[in-house]
Description:
Number of helices: 7
Bound molecules: FE2/S2 (inorganic) cluster
Order of helices and strands: HHHHEHHEEEH
Radius of gyration: 18 Å
Strand order of the largest sheet: 2-1-3-4
Structural class: alpha+beta
Amino acid sequence: MNKAKTIAIVDPAQINAIVSEYSEQKWALIPLLQKIQNEFGYIPPQSIPFIARSLRLFPSQVQGVISFYTQLYTQPRGRKIVRVCRGTACHVRGGKTILKLVKQHLDIEEGENTPDLEYALETVACIGVCALAPNIVVADKVYGHMNPKKVEQLFRSRENEG
Ligand code: FES
């Protein structure tokens, strides 16, 4: 099973309620897209015609903006993004092992989501706190000086759920 393609249920009424707040306000396209993404974790493709109609744009214009901004997604993503640093400082201090362990604990590969959409796993070039290497970021919180025990502690509760 490709875990990255897990489909979330999206209520069209919920989409409509958000879109209607911005009716005919073309300037509001990006705030509207961000609000939808905050609500669903991504921008459901079925919301694009609603957005376009409401803001009096072409669907291709909405799609174009989504494609331009790398932080906007049209596929479901995990609610907590786990970013493992693969920069040089982290790499030489065991970052590769940390990535391997995170993959094992979450049972997913880089670029995938857990089936319950709790987590998504990414790697990043450097998160800017090299002195704490090796680092990972979970839901925007930095965890420095990572080691196998810390990885286990971070994701232990998840394994107990399974
Ligand atoms: S190389 Fe990992 S934080 Fe800079």
